[in-house]
Amino acid sequence: MYLALLVIFLQFSELYTQDKVFTFNTVEIKVEPSVKVRNGAPMSIICHADISKSADFQLKYNFTIFKDHKLVFMTVSDTGDAQYEVPVAKSSDTGDYQCTVKADKKTRSSDPVHVWVTGMTKPTLTADKRDVLEGEVVKLRCELPEEDPPLQFCFRKIKTNSTPRETCVPESYTNFSVLEVSVEEGDNILQFDCFGRRNVKLEWEDSAHSNKTLVTVREPFIKPTLTTVPSSNNVTEGDQIQFECSTVVVEMRDIEIILQKNKSILNSVQDKKLLRYSTVATLEDSGEYLCKVEQGGASKTTKLNVVVSELFPKPTLVASMTKLDKNKELILNCSINGFQTANFSIIRKNANGDIPLKNSQTLKMRVNVNDTGSYTCKAEVKGIVKESKPVRINVYAPVSKPTLSVAGGLPEVVLGKPLQLICHSVMGTPPKTFRFYKGDDVEKIVINDTYATFLDENIRLNDQRGYRCDARNNHSSGVKTSDILNVTVIVPVRDASLGSVPYGEVEDGSEIAFLCSVKEGSLPILFRFFKKTDNEVLLFEKIEHRDRAMWHKETMKRQDTGTYYCVASNRANVDVRSQPITISVILAAWKKGVVAALVLITIAGAGALALWWFLRKKKKAKGPSMEMSGSALAANLTSEKLARQPNDGDYYSGSGYIEDSENHMKSTDESKGPDLESAEVEYTEVEVSTLDPHRAPVQKGTETVYSEIRKANNGIFARSYLALKIVSYTGFLQYVIFLARNWIRKYNAPENLPLKGRLSCPVTARTLRRDFCSNP
């Protein structure tokens, strides 16, 4: 039962909660009577919340009103409206107002509304003093107690029959301002007031003026009196004039009297009522004088104009001549118009001070150049000294004969470039007038002290006119003319070219000739020969009085291969460079032959060594040496030799041959031992002569004879020696052919030839016999 009641209660609570639904539609703020309210009038700020509810239930509304984002009002209401009352609106109430409403857990704010309270409250003005002296300071205070800063306070100083003087002071953090005002001379009765000002929406708004404050001003001293003795309009040069300035002072404390003329202080006194000043009057003393009395901040002045009459006029200096020659007589005379009794003196002006020449009215002197300058005279009457205007005297020495030269030094010019000439006259008083001539034509006139320059830009190659100049000054001697100057026109070098013999290639060790030439240019010409490298190398240079130069290089080397060029120049100082040429140093012909021979020797030697090694290997593979029966062969040979008859010079008797053969065979048989059995067999082909019985006198032929030769341990060195001898006698090629034939025939010979022992060489093989058949 209780459980059922709890469920029913919860259901009703849920239904009740679901029924309390609301939402803010709008929140508005409005101002009554309007957003623009007069200062001092009542004002109401009303906040209204428009809410929609799901049912009729009660809500609590929290209203908050802000001005310029600052809280000014807060309340709780059961209705959707709240009102903020301002009984007396002030300018400080001007601003942006906004309302925020909170109900339950929901909050809504209105849009801001600007309220402008027009007009400001009236300020109050107070002064710290009501009775002051001239020069003292009055402190004024203007206040707007009901207004909020920032504000601006304007103070007005009001004098009788004058426009008020206004001074404004801004105040950013206070609603009052203090200003100190100085009381000036002539401020007898003063009135002050003030008003406030503020800026609203970029517009200035002024308050009403405050109450007027009256300030009485008293003089601390009276205006000073300035007098002169004699009177200011009856003063003559030379008179003693005295100035007096006086005043009446209320209190003799920190008072000062000052006498001025043209802002220059002539005299002053302190804590006195009277000032005196005296001087001898001159024309320069005419003018306005000022007497000023000061005490504290107070100041009063009096002005007096003084006119000084002229006692006598300024003297006049007259010269007999102002321009004269050296050693001429000069007369200077000083005088005063209508006045004779005066003390005269003649003076020469100098930068370091005046130089008195004579205390007299007249001066005679014979002048020199150093006497050139300005002269004046002075006249003194009754202590008044006056000076005349200066007179300029110029004394001239005659000019010397001018010299004409070229600015560069030498009398020459490069074609196409300007020529600058200098005409110089050493002696003579400046200024001097110089004239330049080209031929008979005047080209230029220059006035200068010592020299003049002329620039001729019209230089032609075949212009034969000479140059001259003359100089003169104010001396009576007249013009001096220079000598005629002839100028050489230098033609720059043009179009340099370089060639060589031989051209392009030259053999190593041979000579070569380089020729550098130009198309045109004034002589002499400097020719320089270069080889182009990273750093340009000067090889040869020569000065020629013609348009070409040759350089012989006797021996060219491989390192001389490269690019060559020449540079030509003359006194025009313009370097003209030729086009480069390339020279290749090649190997000489005989060196090529040597190289070829060395290559062939190397190749042939390697081939012969390979052939020998191959045949030696083949021979070792055949086994032990074969015995050859030599008896039949020996008999045949013997009978053949005996049958031959001496026929010509090529024939040689064979008796010795037989004997040697027999003896050799005997010794060989007798000495045959273990070494002989193991010795190698060598076959040598020799050429022999045979006699043809059907023809006379002799027919040559060849017959292959194989002889067995025992090879000793040093056989290789013997063959090397033999090869060297053949090279020395018959040449390398004959030796190669011979060696090849010898080895080929030896290894292709019949293996059963009955030949044993060492055979002597035939008589016809003379050349080979020398090398091969001589006893070791």
UniProtKB/TrEMBL annotation:
Keywords: Cell adhesion, Cell junction, Cell membrane, Disulfide bond, Glycoprotein, Immunoglobulin domain, Membrane, Phosphoprotein, Repeat, Signal, Transmembrane, Transmembrane helix
KW tRNA processing (keyword) present: no
Signal peptide per UniProt: 1-17
GO BP annotations listed: cell surface receptor signaling pathway; cell-cell adhesion via plasma-membrane adhesion molecules; immune response
Membrane topology: Single-pass type I membrane protein
Keyword Kinase applies: no
MF annotations from Gene Ontology: transmembrane signaling receptor activity
Domain of life: Eukaryota
Membrane-crossing segments per the record: 594-615
Ig-like domain residues: 224-307, 313-392, 402-486, 492-584
GO CC annotation terms, alphabetical: anchoring junction; external side of plasma membrane; membrane raft
Subcellular location: Cell junction; Cell membrane; Membrane raft
Protein name: Platelet endothelial cell adhesion molecule
